[in-house]
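Worked example

This section walks through a single chain of length 244. The input is the sequence exactly as stored; nothing has been trimmed or padded.
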Amino acid sequence: MGLFDDVLLTVDFDRTLTATDSTIPQRNMEAIRYFMDNGGVFTVNTGRSVPMSAEHVIGKVPANAPLLLYNGSADYDMEAGKLSRYVEIPLDPEQVLTDIQEKFPQLNVEIQALDAHYLLRKNPGWEDYSDHNQCAWKYVQNNTYPQPFVKFTVYGEFRKNTVADMYEATEEELEDFRRLTAYIEETYGHAVDAFRACARILDMHAKGCGKLNAARALQKNLGRKYLVCVGDAENDLTMLQGAD
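Given that input, the structure is written out below as tokens.
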């Protein structure tokens, strides 16, 4: 019997498992290995996509369960190298994303697919941001939107190429995101949940998904008695409130 035989531990990635510079402290890696060596099941529970996780999470973080990605909208089987579960947004991506881009032209609308992140309009700052974070990127062309439609994101200005910079916003930018959130909840709230990953990033996924539901489903599949969760941001709140 191991100390943690009954436990599933799911942990947010950015600024929880990582330091503010996006590196993973060695003591965190050692703690994960100790936990798993003593019977625990560990996985990352993140808003990141497959492309945003390819160089940072997949194969880099020790885990003995599927990764919970897209803010709980999908499970990634590392051994099989593919999604084992995903939930699509029940909306037309072209209609939704072009509508939001037209209503909020000062912001940047992105769809997070399985092969890359796609932006609706040209933005060199976004290209640099994606390259810096080792995330494959493309532009939506000829009104062809990638499938499945699992998650989309709206960004503020790309002043720097780091995730950390997205945590800082002016009052004008905060007001933009308050109006954006209200519009999405009023117009598309029947189909999506919107959440602030940080000050200048708003993420959307299918309604009723989320980190807690994904973690509970995994806990049930694995037959673990206790769910323990760690996180730091708004999209972690329900997970933290609902964990054991």
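What to look for: Helices lie at 13-17, 26-37, 50-53, 93-103, 124-132, 171-188, 211-222, 237-242.
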